Amino acid sequence: MWLIGLTGGIGSGKSSVARWLREHGIPVLDADAMVRRLLQGDAETVTMIRQAFGPKVIAEDGQVERRKLARVVFADVQAREALEGIVYPRIERLRLEEMRTLEDCGHRLAIWDVPLLFEKNLRGNVQETLLIWVPVEVQIERVRRRDGWTRADILARLAAQMPLDDKRKLADVMIDNSGDWSETENQLVEYWRTLAERGLVTTGPLP
User: Fold this and answer.
1) Taking the model in full, what pTM does it have?
2) Residue 178 burial (10 A CB sphere; 0-12, 13-18, 19+)
3) Rounded CA gap, 108 and 149, in Å?
4) Which positions bind ATP (predicted)?
């Protein structure tokens, strides 16, 4: 299977691009969704997080309180590395399981939507990389409007990710999502055409 690593950063619009690709028939494996599944329903993961971070990050229903956990790990590099050590091996297991299911269903192409693709040295798990890029000030303003976070909170999140300008140097393909969505969609259509030329998708779903 040809696996495209889709990445970006907070406020870059990666989720919107993933949704466009999914709506046009390409399966999307979502790392963030896998994390939510693990934090909500995987007893082993929740137990390890309780042991590592204490009961303060566990809700009354036994699920991990993601917002409280985020405050802890984005303020402490060692705490963040501890969480990643718990979560990432399990995400990899889920990724492989989902890929096998897709291959059994005859799919030849899929998207691996993973924010920390470059930070976690996951480039070797995909055949090509697709970066959704915007200037850093656009990231900050979009997250401020969307989530109501303070600038300090946003900068703490950004500090935990490789700058998009650095990712831009590493990516195989870049989509500039700093303008209107119509401009982004035009770039996605062109990218789709390159996939079609390589026989990875059909031309049918193009707008």
Assistant:
1) 0.88
2) middle
3) 40
4) 11-16
Tell me the helix, strand and coil percentages in the chain, rounded to 5. 55, 15, 30
For residue 41, is pLDDT > 90? no
DSSP string computed for 65-127: -HHHHHHHHTT-HHHHHHHHHHHHHHHHHHHHHHHHHHHHTT--EEEEE-TTTTTTT-GGGSS
| Token duo for residue 9 | 């950063």
Was 11 annotated as part of a binding site?
Answer: yes
**Both structure tokens of 131:** 């970066």
Give dist(CA 123, CA 3) in Å, integer.
Answer: 11
Contact 116, 122 (CB under 8 A): yes
Looking at CATH, the fold of the domain delimited by 1-27+109-199 is given as: Rossmann fold (3.40.50)
What pLDDT does residue 63 have? Answer: 86
User: Alpha-carbon distance 103 to 113, whole Å?
Assistant: 17
Using the predicted structure, report yes or no on whether residue 207 has a pLDDT greater than 60.
no
Among residues 161, 127, 130, the alpha carbon closest in space to that of 11 is found at 161
* 182 known ligand binder: no
Q: Is 41 annotated as a binding residue?
A: no
154-159 LR contacts (CB < 8 Å, sep 24+): 154/10, 154/11, 156/74, 156/75, 157/10, 157/74, 158/9, 158/10
